[in-house]
């Protein structure tokens, strides 16, 4: 009887140990899937932004303070373990976001847009001064960027869970859901109805005529691509800051003419008509200011239309108005937007990119 009892205790103990080891193993696997440096990286970036913004422009002082903004790499996948995004093969520091509903993807992308916006001072701090612009050869219109996040999808794994990435609609999610800890939707926080961009064909045409009086380009490219790109597999959340040291007043008036906004926040997921798209392409070629306005509309210089991989996700939110530039204020725009990730796409928006890959 005693032997049987002893055997029962040993078996129970062994089972407990095995279950304990399995539990620890599962915890370690789950733990390994998360990037615990994200919060620290965000704070480090924000501090470097504040430090950079407070420095004077004397002898290009800002250029000697690097922005310590590390690009976060996010792979959306499903399942308990495993899962990978081909875009991040042989890349370290990947955050694997495990989801089982498309709403979770929409939520995470919306969060990352807000994080990017807050991290960079909500668009009201100058990160790139005139010395910086002139040094890099774009003193007419400065367009500088930080890539906050790169986003890729494990399509095979997501499909098994029933998630069709083509149905992801971040803009719709942002209009209906509150930011965690705030009694306000993502949409209203970043711009809302008061900041809704009003773009009209005639406004673009009028501005083209005005800017073309000082035409700087000989040709106008009307071969505009108005189709979205379903084959693109990776997105980027991009912070872009544009201001014009040379054409400050013209920039201010142009913003009001085309966008219908003065100094305010804005948010947009524009669906441009073919006529307006071609018009904005002409605008981009008519004048440096036109190129800046076209970029705000979601078009790149030369009439290239930059769409995200999904319909309704080419979101742009930002602020136009006075930006603190050294000891004065310059009219400019700061934008956080979702774009395709790739050298060609990014070059349409950014004269220079300053972030840690």
List the helices and strands and how they pair.
Blueprint: H1 2-32, H2 38-54, E1 72-77, E2 94-98, H3 102-119, H4 130-135, E3 142-153, H5 155-160, H6 170-176, H7 186-190, H8 201-211, E4 234-243, H9 248-259, E5 264-268, H10 274-286, H11 288-296, E6 299-300, E7 304-305, E8 316-325, E9 328-340, H12 343-347, E10 352-353
Parallel strand pairs: 1-2, 1-3, 3-10
Antiparallel strand pairs: 3-4, 4-9, 5-8, 6-7, 8-9
Helix pairs in contact: 2-3, 3-6, 8-9, 8-10, 10-11
**Biggest β-sheet, characterized?**
8 strands, mixed
> Number of helical segments?
12
- The helix fraction, in percent, is 25-40%
Low-confidence stretches: 24-36, 214-231, 270-278, 300-312
Describe this structure in words.
It contains 12 helices and 10 strands. It folds into 2 domains: 1-32; 33-353, no CATH class. Strands 1, 2, 3, 4, 5, 8, 9 and 10 form an 8-stranded mixed sheet that branches. A two-stranded antiparallel sheet has the order 6-7. The model is unreliable at 24-36, 214-231, 270-278 and 300-312 (pLDDT under 50). By secondary structure, it is α/β, with parallel strands linked by helices.
